[in-house]
Amino acid sequence: MPEVKMRLIHLSRCRGISRKRLHKIMDLDSSLKEIYHLSPQALATFLSIPTKTALSIYYDLRNRQLIQNVKEDAKKYGIVTLLDQHYPIQLKTIKDPPIVLYLLGDASLLKHIPSLSVIGTRKPSKEAMEKTKVMIEPLVKADWLIVSGMASGIDSYAHQITLLSKGKTIAVLGGGFQHIYPRKNILLYKEIVRNGLAVSEYPPSVPPQRHHFPERNRIISGLSFATLVIEATEKSGTLITVDQALDQGREVYAVPGSPLIPQTAGCNNLIQDGAKLVQQATDIAEDWEATGKHFQQIHADQK
């Protein structure tokens, strides 16, 4: 692995170095060498940060165990960084792209087109599994890639249906590979790793945190041509992903439902606000033929 890539991975794990600060370091020093030779005071000046934060960075830059962990993880997992030529082109165009991605499974799926994010409530209705199947099974059989977050409920249904249909799926996780959440999805995770791809921007040893889940949503939507909401309550966390998708210029689809079922209120509201109503898979497939090829061309031109 090139030294600059190793340094970037190491820097991404240092306390006090946020993605914003790491972008600043990359802009100021493309080789990522200079920062390793700075004193705490020079670091504070270089990054315009408090001395206490600079001290944490200074010590982590010299932490042999942290450096060794990076080397060991590079042997166990696929790692792609913003510096790599094979970094997913569709993620380069989003706001705040992940700088480092850890991969387990078939990394070639990051380039697969067309792809669809499928999301929804963690507490679905009784109809949700069948609803998800009707919407995505025909697409999966037509070689669409399904992206989701491996959460309980709709996310899990999307991955399960895709795998049962011998299709391709990517799970974007809210923690490192050594801390699978929810625990009940460990078997699903293992099957995704065998037959699809698991992705995380968090190092393998990092457990999931509450703020990780809304943060990782930008990757779920960013990897896809469009986002499909199967079910969502009126104040569902699912809507965070919808906001990310819209911000990224992606299409948003929603499945309508009965006003008597709380799990469909969010979808109905989305449709009122301009999301495209879909009743069957062909609605999405036809939209791809009409507008998706333009999305594909735009991203091809940016390579």
Distance between the termini: 22 Å
Strand content: 5-15%
Structural class by secondary-structure content: alpha/beta
Largest sheet geometry: 9 strands, mixed
Widest sheet, order of strands: 1-2-6-5-4-3-7-8-9
Ranges where pLDDT stays below 50 over 5 or more residues in a row are none
Which descriptor suits the 3D outline?
elongated
Into which percent range does the helicity of residues fall?
40-55%
The average pLDDT score comes to 94
Radius of gyration: 20 Å
Order of helices and strands: HHHHHEHEEHEHEHEHEHEHEH
How many helices? The count is 13
Question: How many runs of DSSP E, i.e. beta strands?
Answer: 9
Textual characterization of the structure:
- The protein is α/β, with parallel strands linked by helices and 303 residues long.
- It is 47% helix and 13% strand.
- The chain contains 13 helices and 9 strands.
- A 9-stranded mixed β-sheet has the order 1-2-6-5-4-3-7-8-9, with helices on both faces.
- Strand 4, helix 8 and strand 5 form a beta-alpha-beta unit.
- It is elongated, with a radius of gyration of 20 Å.
- The mean pLDDT is 94.
Features:
single chain, 303 residues, alpha/beta, 9-stranded mixed β-sheet, 9 strands, 13% strand, elongated
